[in-house]
Protein 1
Amino acid sequence: MLPDGFTWVAAGLLGATIGSFLNVCIVRLPADQSLIRPRSRCPKCETPVAWFDNIPVVSWFALRGRCRQCRQPISPQYPIVEALVSALWVGALWRHGFGLDALTAALFGTILFGIAVTDARHYLIPDEYTLGGLVLGLGLAWRHGVRGFGAAILGAAVGFALLYVVAWAGEKAFKKEAMGGGDIKMMAMVGAFVGWKGVLLTVFGGALLGSLVYVPLSLKKKRLVLFGVFLAAAAALAFELGDPIVRWYLGFLQ
Ligand SMILES: [Zn+2]
């Protein structure tokens, strides 16, 4: 079904609202704070933000990036995340058409985006994204019936097992923790959305992206590897383009 004008606008507004909530997750989850209470407040003067100053994207520009009370700057991260998630939800509608496939793509993309930002800022991947996303992925897999659900369970198991083995081998090889538990739980979640072939593609793609970025960087100085960021990018590619890539690859073997 081709979306009409109203559906496009609704997807954009819903995406911006979800993006606003993702901002709250990005700030509060690493600090183990509640997502619901207290209400949004200025981090500098702690004045609660009125509803009309809390409209995604629009309010930041209306306030010219400053708190209404204390006039201290508000991070541009807020409107940027809101605009990007809004674009992501419109993009999911464009690619999949109106329906559960678009909703699944939009939710999966939003979770991956939250993981990437949080991993980049804090070097950790909160359980709310991974375990919450795993439950969501298994639930949404029912849109393809029992077979879809079975494929999601298998994908989650392969994702968990593969990263568990990689983490164990890395620890043996480097005599220190090479990969966090967050990465392992993340790949169980990713597996529920992309299936076992998608898991292989994601881990391969994540390692490839990681080495492309880190080999030039590590020549200069040592850095913590943000594997979650690269896994998130590769997982999004595996979700959208996994089937054509696997078919293209298998074409060589015939
Ligand atoms: Zn303030």
Protein 2
Amino acid sequence: MGQDLSQLRDDVALANRILEAAGLSNAFGHASARLPGTATFLLPTRRSPRFAQASSLLVVDFDGKVVAGDGAPNSELWIHARLYAARPDIGGIVHAHPEACVCLTQIGEPHRVVHNQGGPFHGRVAVFDKIGLIRSRTLGDELASALDGGNIAAMMRGHGITTACADVRTAIVAALFLEESATLQLRMLAAAGGDASRLREFTPDEAKRLDDQLGPAIVERAWDYYASLASS
Ligand SMILES: [Zn+2]
């Protein structure tokens, strides 16, 4: 368990640095991981994710209390605390403010599957229309209710995204794929004169065949690549 915990701390710190290095967020945004078998999770302190280090991660409980580590947690810690409380299947969470996803929420366009890496999101993206930061337990619970069942992501209007997956590596790769998908969708919409009916959106059956795009092999390959961006 000692080595596993050390690896988990390294993964959470690296996921945060990837978040910034890959352009999903700048001074804001955060990635976390559940500490297995406990009602706690690892979260960075209230700084840009660029500065996250394994040794300075906080341990926070589902009531939002810091139980280990020094420093203040990110103010949107409630996203993580209440999602872990509500969804035992979730091991990793990423919250970021990527531009293309924010644009989609503000033109009333749902996420559509328009390329291969968007496949796993079919029918699994919640919409959270309430604006503003998630800085209370109540708002965290509201987001968790929106992101229930088999959802793996939420698009938050005028704000950003939250991805919630089995582990933090998958959650960060999901966040990157979702922003890539939204970027392409916006470009396609612009090329089609804003007419969404001209997009050749993947059918549910087509999208379903692409579930492996967030499977272990693809996630590991993407993680390796993005990790190299964050460490150079
Ligand atoms: Zn936010």
